[in-house]
Write a structure and sequence with these properties.
The structure is a single chain. The protein contains four helices and no strands. By secondary structure, it is an all-alpha fold. The chain has one domain. Helix 1 packs parallel to helix 3 and helix 2 runs antiparallel to helix 3. The longest helix is centred in the middle third of the chain and has 19 residues.
Length: 97
């Protein structure tokens, strides 16, 4: 069955990422934190770009607004990976000090 809209495509992408995540053992690595930070920064850049998502005004360094759903999916999966590996417990303990 063909995907017909962006919402369905994003949901399919998230499902694919989630299925890959389920294959691996939940082991927290520094790479997970770096990936989360990178994609959060990409979302922040999209929020503050002066182009308003309009390609005709974009600079070479601007991110494409069409990729926002992908960055959000990356953030969700990275956060879930960190959570499943116990990373949020470490943060919780650090905050309670």
């Amino acid at each position: 069955m063909a995907k017909h809209n962006i919402k369905e495509l994003d949901a399919g992408q998230l499902e694919l990422m989630w299925n890959f995540l389920k294959f691996g053992e939940a082991k927290l690595e520094l790479r997970d934190i770096k990936d989360l930070e990178k994609n959060l920064n990409n979302i922040r850049q999209l929020m503050v770009q002066k182009t308003g998502g309009q390609p005709q005004y974009a600079n070479a360094s601007d991110l494409l607004i069409d990729d926002l759903g992908t960055y959000i999916n990356f953030v969700v999966i990275a956060a879930m990976r960190i959570h499943l590996a116990g990373g949020l417990d470490v943060l919780r303990e650090h905050c309670e000090v």
